[in-house]
Specification:
The protein is an alpha+beta fold. 22% of the residues lie in helices and 32% in strands. The strands form 5 sheets. A 6-stranded mixed beta sheet has the order 3-4-2-1-18-15. Strands 5-8-9-10-14-11 form a 6-stranded mixed beta sheet. Strands 6-7 form a two-stranded antiparallel ribbon. The chain is globular.
């Protein structure tokens, strides 16, 4: 194994739903009132800084047992603004690394967005842009949700495109809301089709919180329409996932990619493995929720945990 590591460079690509990473300032344009110092949740500067500290610790450890370093590329969800991502990478666990940020404010009513962190020593950002998903809550009235973020750049001098997602929730019910996630899937398909028009065999990674499992209609529609490979299909089981609801595991957080990551040509990025980062320190240690993600809040009760989601990740290798 030691010989193999000397011959290959390894990179971690991760996704993490940060569970309501809000700052403590009031944004008059969004519904962030739950996360203010004088709200019922008492979202204070101390609690905010503690959450940034804990989340950065998690991020710093994803894939580290194999790569000996934090992830090179990280898609995130539920970040209020660029400032919270700046604070996140300024903590002691990440500040010694040269992380860059891609973030755009979306029209999501709660003011939570997707974002992207990247190690500037290993990934050269070329372009980024966002795409809105048009859905209606009733005829003629738009229901604003998180934008989809496209990032393109060079990872170890090889062009890679990352599409970061946080699809509409199941709050209204799984079946009623499924049409919204199908709309998001169609938008991702359109982005991929456009990339294929301008580039021969682009290497694409689609990552995010899809609010659907690998076997649900929207994710299947996405993978089958674009020939994306979804390694999360084999990880999902009744006893394991990235999020737990009513004592049932879901694997809403997923990473899919184009099959050219299976190519074994020399000096080409190649897929190695994928996994859920569900280390014991991220779980609740006791009680009826033992083994589930250790959350920041349960309802309005502060618990001081990390997130209600586990991160997911994949490893890429490149022979020298």
């Amino acid at each position: 194994m030691e010989k193999q590591e000397k011959k290959e460079d390894l990179y971690t690509v991760a996704f993490y739903n940060l569970e309501n990473l809000f700052d403590v300032s009031d944004n008059k344009r969004t519904h962030d009132n739950d996360f203010l110092p004088y709200s019922e949740k008492r979202w204070t500067k101390k609690r905010y800084e503690r959450k940034c500290y804990k989340l950065s610790e998690v991020i710093s450890k994803i894939g580290r047992n194999k790569t000996k370093k934090p992830p090179t590329l990280i898609g995130v969800a539920e970040a209020e603004n660029k400032r919270v991502l700046k604070d996140l990478i300024a903590t002691k666990y990440l500040s010694t690394y040269n992380y860059g940020i891609v973030h755009y404010d979306s029209k999501d009513e709660r003011g939570i967005d997707v974002g992207f962190l990247y190690d500037k020593d290993e990934f050269k950002l070329e372009t980024s842009e966002t795409f809105s998903v048009y859905i209606e809550k009733e005829p003629g009235i738009q229901d604003y949700t998180r934008d989809i973020l496209l990032i393109s750049g060079l990872l170890d001098n090889e062009r890679v495109h990352c599409i970061v997602n946080h699809w509409p929730s199941r709050r209204e019910g799984v079946e009623i809301s499924s049409v919204k996630r199908i709309a998001a899937a169609k938008k991702v398909i359109s982005i991929i089709e456009d990339l294929k028009k301008t580039e021969s065999q682009p290497k694409i990674i689609v990552l995010g919180d899809f609010n659907d499992n690998p076997n649900n209609k929207s994710v299947k529609y996405l993978s089958q329409s674009t020939s994306l490979f979804n390694p999360m299909e084999t990880l999902f089981s009744y006893s394991r996932g990235s999020q737990n609801h009513n004592f049932r595991w879901n694997l809403f957080d997923q990473i899919l990619f184009t099959t050219n990551f299976f190519e074994t040509r020399p000096k080409r990025l190649k897929f190695e493995s994928a996994n859920i980062f569900d280390e014991k320190f991220l779980t609740q240690y006791k009680g009826k929720f033992k083994g589930q993600p250790f959350r920041t809040f349960v309802g309005r009760k502060y618990k001081g945990g990390f997130s209600d989601h586990f991160p997911v990740y994949m490893l890429l290798s490149k022979s020298k």
